[in-house]
Design goal:
The chain has about 160 residues and is mostly helical. It has 5 helices and no strands. The radius of gyration is 20 Å and the shape is globular.
């Protein structure tokens, strides 16, 4: 069942990227995010699944629809870019291969004491904070750049 949910989410992701109708693309995105939330809940990650449904399916989609309503959406002519296809292909192949190259986790399946769990969290907190900051800054920069481009395109 989980493979079916992931396959449907993948199909909806492709649909949301390839549709020219903005509202249809956003609705595909909503359904994909909802299915991912259901998948997480099915994997006994209820909190992650609820965050996925409430934050991404609810908040991000409303924000996207608001932006599309205010700015409008005009899709450029589609041109095949061989370098972009090559980059996406290599990234996807890498994402499929990387889990098999990861070293085996020691003590897998054994309970970890609370002190060790806290130590793991505090050891990686700085890296997580930096990564989150970089991703947030990239999204903010991309949004501002998109607004600037669309503003000049309307004039």
């Amino acid at each position: 069942m989980s493979i079916l949910i992931l396959f449907l989410a993948l199909v909806l992701a492709v649909m949301s990227l390839t549709q020219k109708n903005t509202v249809g693309a956003v609705m595909s995105f909503v359904t994909m995010m909802f299915l991912l939330g259901i998948y997480y809940i099915g994997m006994d990650e209820k909190l992650l699944g609820l965050f996925q449904i409430f934050v991404y399916t609810g908040g991000i989609v409303v924000l996207t629809l608001f932006g599309v309503t205010v700015i409008g959406a005009k899709f450029p002519e589609f041109k095949i870019r061989p370098w972009a296809v090559a980059v996406v292909t290599f990234v996807l192949i890498g994402l499929v291969i990387i889990p098999f190259l990861m070293p085996e986790i020691p003590n897998a399946g054994k309970p970890i004491p609370l002190e060790e769990q806290v130590k793991v969290f505090t050891d990686f907190y700085a890296e997580i904070a930096i990564f989150t900051g970089v991703v947030g800054a990239s999204i903010l920069y991309g949004s501002i750049r998109m607004l600037h481009t669309l503003k000049h395109e309307k004039e």
